[in-house]
Structures are given as C-alpha cells and as structure tokens.
Amino acid sequence: MACRLADSFILFKGSHQKPLQSKRAIIAQYSPRVCNLKECGLIQKGFRHRLNFVPRKKVTVIQAVAVPLEPSPVESAEYRKQLAESYGFRQIGEPLPDDITLKDVIDSLPKKVFEIDDTKAWKTVLISVASYALGLFMISKAPWYLLPLAWAWTGTAVTGFFVIGHDCAHKSFSKNKLVEDIVGTLAFLPLIYPYEPWRFKHDRHHAKTNMLYEDTAWHPVWKDEFDSSPALRNAIIYGLMWHFDLKKFRTNEVKRVKISLACVFAFMAIGWPLIIYKTGIMGWIKFWFMPWLGYHFWMSTFTMVHHTAPHIPFKYSENWNAAQAQLNGTVHCDYPQWIEILCHDINVHIPHHISPRIPSYNLRAAHKSLQENWGKYLNEASWNWRLMKTIMTVCHVYDKQQNYVAFDELAPEDSRPITFLKEVMPDYA
User: Fold this and answer.
1) Residue 216: alpha-carbon gap to chain centroid
2) What are the tens digits of pLDDT across the range 410-428?
3) How far apart are CA 207 and CA 198, in angstroms?
4) DSSP string, 177-227
5) For a surface tag, which of 87, 313, 330, 428 has the fewest beta carbons within 10 Å of its beta carbon?
6) Which helix (H) or strand (E) holds 140?
7) What is the rounded CA–CA span in Å between residue 374 and residue 102?
C-alpha cells in the first residue's frame, strides 16, 4: 500500500507557521508497510533539493508520522487509464495479488477449451493451404503495382502455417503425436524454421515467461552488453540476431534437432532450385522471398506485442511469479478480422499462456472466460500505431526501477534508427 507523510503531523513552533504542504505524493513499493523518507523517494535522485524546505528560524519539530493512504499509482484505476492512453492500450490490468496461483486461473477455465477436435484442427490446415494457394495465384496474376497487396495476403497466409506448427509443438493439434510432429515439421518448412529446436526453445519461453536470462523468446538488452563496445551496440540497435545453436540443447534433444535442421536444409536445397528453375530468380523473390518477409513482419510484430510494454516487468527468477507473468505479463491484441482468421487467433494470447494445451480454435472461448473471471487483471489492446511506436522506441534496455530505458537515452549519438522512428511513425491510437 502506498503511503505519504501526513502533512498535518509535521508541526512547527509558532502559530504563524502553516503545515508543510506536499506537492507530490511520495510513493512506496507495492508491499503494505509504513515507509520512511528514503524508502518513499524523498532523498532519491531529483528530490534532494527538497530537503531544504525546513525554515531557517529555530523550530521545534515533532517526529513525522507515516500513515497509509491511497494505493500506489499502478494500483490506481485513473493512473492505469492514463498509461493505457499514453501507450496505446485499451486496458492495462491491475496487479495480480501474490496469493493467486497459475493453477487458480487454469481451474477457472471451462474444461471444453482444452479438448482437441480433429475436425477443427484440419479445418485450420484447409484455411491456410487455400489462402496460401490463393495468394500465390494473386502474385502470378497481379500487375506490378498490386504486388504489395498480394504479398501482404500471402505473407499473412503463410503465418497461419506457423500457427499450425505452433499448435503441434504444444501437443494441442491432434491426439496422435506422430501426426503432430509430421504436420509441424511440414508446416515450418516454407518458413525455413526447424521445428524441433524451435519447439524446445519455445517450451522454455512458456515455462519462464518474462524471466530475466531464462525467457528464450524475447528479453530486454542488458546495459553492460549495450555499453560493452560500439560494434555490439550498433548490432543490437540495428537488430542483428542469432538463431539455433546445437550447444544450447540437451543431449536427448540433439537428435531431433538435427532431423529438423536436415529437413529445412533439404527444402532449401530442393525447393529453392525448383522455384528458380520454373520462374527464375525474380520468381523466387516474388513467390517465396517477399511472402517470407511478410511472415517475419507479422511474427516480429506479434512477438513484441505479446509481452512487451513499459509497464510489464521482467524479473529475476527469485522474484518471478508464474500467474503474474502469464496473466499480467501477456497482452491480448485485436487485429483486423482477416488477419485473425488467416493467423488462427494466435493473438488471443493470454489464454495460450495460461495453458499452452488450449488449441488455437478454442482460444476465444477461453479468453471470454478469463474476461469474466479475471477481467480487471488483463492487458488488452487493438493494434494501433501508438502501441507499436511505444514498443519500438521505448522498450529496449533493462532497468530494474523503470523496466526499460530507451536506446537514445543511453547513447543518443548511436541511436539514429530510434530517433528516425520517433519522427516518422504515426502517434495515433
């Protein structure tokens, strides 16, 4: 509970003296306790000059008494509303109490949302295959000035293949696990994604969501990394990434990883030459490379939006709480309906993090249940430019107090891409 030094308890000798009027609430941490000057921030950076408020005349000071008052800002509905508007969110959830467990949330969901339905699963495959085929047909027939629209459709359609493989990886596609592994491997081939190594890494992301060091999907840059060398700093700012490394997998995983890598390399060695043989280099660019870039646009966007916001903290393992990370630390984002259909509701993401065993076609029913039972704790948004601008220009380097510090605050001379984004990206929600 937040607290403030009660003004009326600070008394000075002499009837002409008025009680000191605080212009700013002194906010403590979330834990309910009485706070002192240092803990409440009065002696922190930016407040040291306020220690000069005591009149120079001789006074008799009665010891200040700290009393509990209103909740801290993040617990305030009005403050969360202001943050939501500023960040581009529809709602920022209030903090989940420490005594709520992930099991409590899972137990609140209807049992039917966990049921695997083969008909619905294969319907998603049919939608993806048909929409991808339609996209390739549009690319083949579109004049040059309509190609970007055809690529946008086809790149979104091929993102649906990823979602199918994603369900297979979580064992929520079919009751037959061999079928899941085959379908998942085939679905990932056009994406140049090795199914098994991705699956192993992704499982760790779910087990350690928003945990510093352990989360394998995304985490902020460490300041010592950022400061270590100009070359590394520029690589980080401009977005260079590493992919799969056999040394990062357990011994019992390596064989399956190698099989997946072999499948991907075979697709590249056979599929790419066939495309080039039939359509030429420009055909390879038109029919494979540009839709593949579209897929990466969506996957990068989805991944960032799912767990990244200035108010969502990353925590060390000893302070990490599974329910808070999965319910409070995951974002539901609505996209245009055609994107939701082609991508099989992957952005209905909070129930997926509550339990990855929920099939994609049941995510909306699960989310409705979460809204009914846990709605005030949910982070929700509709995709908009302000949301993306916040993520791309603010959420960079880890900071324990602020969660994030932007690149251009730490190294303005090296952060031209960030200043460029701030200038050119729209700011409307």
Assistant:
1) 12
2) 888 888 888 999 999 999 8
3) 14
4) HHHHHHHHHHHHGGGT--HHHHHHHHHHHHHTTTBTTT-SS--PBPHHHHH
5) 428
6) helix 118-141
7) 12
Helix residue ranges per DSSP H, 308-375: 322-323, 337-342, 349-354, 363-374
Residues 6+ apart with CB under 8 A from 342: 127, 128, 131, 156, 157, 159, 160
Q: What is the mean pLDDT of residues 10-21?
A: 37
Q: Are 425 and 393 in contact (CB under 8 A)?
A: yes
Report the alpha-carbon distance of residue 304 to residue 62 in Å, rounded: 52
Residue 404: CB partners within 8 Å, gap ≥ 6?
Answer: 220, 310, 394, 395, 396, 397, 398
Among 390, 337, 184, 334, CA closest to 350: 334
What single letter denotes the amino acid at residue 354?
I
8-state DSSP, 326:
I
What tens digit of pLDDT does each residue of 31-86 get?
A: 333 343 333 433 333 333 333 444 444 444 444 444 443 445 556 889 999 999 99
Q: How far is CA 162 from CA 73, 200, 265, 408, in A?
A: 39, 15, 18, 34
Number of H helices, E strands in the chain: 18, 6
pTM over 0.70: yes
SS3 content of the chain, % helix, strand, coil (to 5): 60, 5, 35
> Rounded distance, CA 288 to CA 45, Å?
54
